[in-house]
Specification:
Radius of gyration: 26 Å
Helix content: 25-40%
Number of strands: 26
Strand content: 15-25%
Distance between the termini: 32 Å
Length: 767
């Protein structure tokens, strides 16, 4: 199989609906700071993957009001799913020996003009324009990318690579959008009829794609800034108007973009006004269930189990109606509800239960939602309208709330148990055989006997690799305890400042700063009967570090993307390992920061642990040594990785420690210390031993470091590359008052999507 076919095959395995390729030459007209060649000099190809909105989620979402999005909540899951595809494809390309920079799906952009880039709401690379470059789409009048298969009902993500791949043919301009103008007619903010500055022209190779040059501030009124669309909009909408209206009226909620809802290309457009006011998408298939093989329905279910879902329950509309649950209110004509479930242990003796449970639940919820999304599309592919919703997402600032019908189904299934669980349900017009919930432990699976700890360890390590981990090592509980004991005098009781924002995310920062004290934790704090600690690692991509913040693009987005995608993908992987151990009869608890000695990094996805977290667990698990910066250095990735720990009562074979100290630290001229904008890295050395192996690193002033990377106050920490005007260096000791004063200077809009790039990380030779 040649490279192009290998990439396509892997993309479809990941769940992509569309895959296309464009050569960098097609982007020669793009502004350098917003181009693939600007982000990754020397790149040759863009790989673009697309996934589509399930039709019923669009057709029934926002039916009563654009800001009552309902099943269109799937949009937020799609953002996260695209991020997963982008990250994993870049890793795939690295494994083939090529450089790759994955671009995030959304939420990282320059709101205002930045230097010579004459654009607002400008991403590093446009995931709307790139599918056109890759031959997947035409541009619609609305400014959305339209595909022949789904019209506007898709979202895309881009990977830039130095691999040379044959480009796909471009779609001729104006061949998909027929200018029906339903998008303009139904736009509640009138963004496609007011403040239009003629045509915007997208030049790709020798072709020109034309669409409305709209005022993006007006367009973002409800969809981005959550302002009430029932308010009378002023004749001219600007950033200042947005800020003033948020202050005066508050917000209502996110909008389902009506340009997307009403856009279906003529060839696949049809209507059923008794079902939806919007156009329906015609299906290329009409399926006769009376003639189908039983394998069709079996495969729907078996695919869910193959993706690590623990329980699948299928109930008919009739059965649910007998219990007082009407699924027709979710999807008119629905015949079946398919619920996907994962259960979890209560781990009452876990001293950090609130912290670890939150991470596990987020990971399990995303995992279930993601498989529900696949199931919804798989059934839809047979010609049956299917629908799902989500209750929360990492790409959405607040939880959306569980739909009543979903809640009724969950309550009925678990009414006679005290089980803790995560669940979501897919509703479909297809009939499937009913399946009941059986929470009984699989005795045969638990009874598996392993010849030794070596055998069990091999099973767990193979599984870690299967779910996507790049690294996996094992430490004994005794190692962890011995290291923690030596670190306690340096960290136990250390003071640090924790700041939260009381105000709305588009209002001026209103900080509450509290003084906290560190506590050094051990494995037994999570699980008193713990015997082993498994540590998995996920890579940061090499080219991201090489070109972060560098001219010509000065892009910080790809680095910020790496910080959050590795965090939540690591959580998903760790949660699956916990589930695997549970089914083998073992207890397990996952932790993003086992000893409690990490911090956080600014991210458009909220609180994200930094990569100093779990560094000591990783060294104890034999994955690497410590650089003077305090980061773990591995043979595979240098300092470019994040670690997640799993504490278990399984007795596993521990890995040998890395005895060789990092060589490059001896002659790098203290680049990490010199590059820190807040002088957070001190010359004080901390040394500890583990089974005769010595480790040493420089201590950081946690509050000066957090000032830079957690709170994005120092411009060189990365936020200035998105246009943040705030650039202050702390004078002397960082106090609660000084931190609060500085935070109040954040721009009210930009503060919502902060980023950081850690100059010490970028400067390190091991990066």
């Amino acid at each position: 199989m040649n490279l192009k076919e290998s990439i396509k095959n892997f993309a479809y395995e990941l769940g992509a609906d569309l895959v296309g390729f464009g050569d960098i030459g097609r982007c020669k007209h793009a502004p350098t700071m917003m181009s693939p060649q600007g982000v990754f000099p020397g790149s040759k190809t863009v790989i673009v993957m697309g996934i589509h909105h399930p039709d019923a989620c669009v057709e029934l979402g926002g039916e009563n009001h654009p800001q009552e999005i309902g099943p269109y909540s799937v949009q937020y899951l799609m953002n996260s799913r695209l991020d997963e595809l982008s990250y994993k494809m870049a890793s795939f390309m690295e494994k083939q020996g090529y450089g790759a920079i994955p671009i995030c799906s959304s939420n990282i952009w320059r709101y205002n003009q930045y230097k010579d880039l004459n654009a607002i709401f400008a991403p590093d690379v446009s995931n709307i324009y790139m599918p056109v470059v890759a031959g997947l789409a035409d541009m619609g009048y609305s400014g959305l990318a339209l595909t022949p298969e789904y019209g506007a009902r898709n979202r895309f993500v881009t990977i830039i690579t130095d691999a040379e791949v044959e480009p796909d043919p471009l779609i001729e301009p104006g061949t998909i959008c027929d200018k029906c103008m339903l998008c303009r007619k139904h736009c509640p903010s009138q963004a496609l009829s007011k403040e239009i500055s003629g045509d915007k022209v997208l030049k790709i190779a020798d072709k020109e794609y034309r669409f409305a040059d709209k005022n993006l501030w007006r367009c973002a009124w409800g969809e981005h800034f959550d302002l009430d669309l029932d308010l009378e909009l002023p004749e001219k909408v600007t950033e200042e108007v947005i800020v003033n209206y948020v202050e005066k009226y508050g917000v209502r909620g996110g909008e389902m973009g009506q340009c997307l809802k009403f856009c279906t290309p003529k060839k696949i457009r049809t209507f059923d006004k008794t079902y939806s006011k919007t156009p329906m998408r015609k299906y290329c298939i009409s399926w006769d269930e009376d003639l189908e093989s039983r394998a069709v329905n079996d495969k729907f279910i078996s695919d869910c189990y193959a993706k690590d879902i623990e329980h699948v329950v299928v109930q008919s509309a009739e059965s649910l109606k007998a219990k007082g649950i009407d699924i027709d209110t979710m999807l008119p004509g629905a015949l079946t509800a398919i619920s996907l479930i994962r259960t979890r242990s209560k781990d009452e003796n876990n001293k950090r239960k609130e912290y670890t449970s939150a991470s596990f639940c987020r990971a399990a919820d995303y995992h279930i939602d993601s498989v529900c999304y696949d199931l919804t599309r798989d059934i839809e592919a047979y010609g049956f309208r299917s629908l799902m919703t989500i209750a929360s997402s990492g790409s959405h600032c607040t939880a959306m709330g569980t739909v009543t019908v979903n809640r009724q189904i969950a309550k009925e299934l678990f009414k006679d148990t005290d089980c803790e669980y995560s669940i979501n349900t897919v509703f479909t017009r297809k009939t499937l055989p009913e399946r009941t919930l059986n929470l009984a432990v699989d005795k045969d699976l638990v009874a598996q006997k392993f010849n030794s700890a070596v055998n069990l360890t091999g099973v767990i390590k193979d599984y870690a690799k299967e779910v996507g981990a790049d690294l996996c090592g094992v430490a004994s509980v005794e190692r962890i305890g011995a290291v923690a004991k030596q670190l306690k005098p340096h960290f136990d009781g250390e003071k640090y400042l924790n700041a939260t924002d009381k105000s709305h995310y588009f209002k001026l920062y209103d900080p509450v700063v509290t003084e906290e004290h560190r506590k050094v934790f051990t494995a037994e704090d999570y699980l008193p009967e713990a015997k082993s600690v498994i540590v998995i690692g996920l890579r940061y991509h090499q080219k991201v570090l090489e070109f972060a913040t560098k001219p010509p693009a000065e892009a910080v987005g790809p680095y910020a993307f790496q910080t959050y995608v590795t965090a939540w993908q690591g959580d998903v992987m760790a949660s699956k390992i916990v589930q695997k151990l549970k089914h083998m009869g073992h207890k397990a608890v996952m932790s993003n920061d086992l000893m409690g000695l990490g911090s956080a990094i600014a991210s458009p996805r909220g609180f994200i642990e930094d990569i100093f977290s779990n560094r000591f667990a990783a060294t104890a698990a034999g994955l690497g040594s410590l650089a003077e910066s305090g980061r773990v250095v591995t043979d595979e990735f240098g300092t470019r990785q994040r670690f997640i720990a799993i504490v278990t009562d399984a007795e596993l074979k521990i890995d040998d420690l890395v005895k060789q100290a990092p060589e490059l630290c001896k002659n790098c001229d203290e680049l990490c210390i010199k590059s820190c904008p807040t002088a957070a890295m001190t010359a004080k050395k901390i040394t500890f031993e583990c089974e005769g192996v010595s480790f040493s690193f420089n201590k950081r002033d946690i509050n000066r470091c957090d000032w830079s990377k957690r709170y994005a106050i120092a411009g060189e920490s990365g936020f200035k590359y998105l246009g943040s005007p705030l650039d202050e260096i702390p004078d002397g000791e960082v106090t609660a008052e000084a931190l609060a004063t500085a935070l109040k200077k954040h721009d009210p809009i930009k503060k919502y999507r902060p980023v950081a790039c850690e100059p010490c990380m970028i400067a390190c030779p091991y990066s």
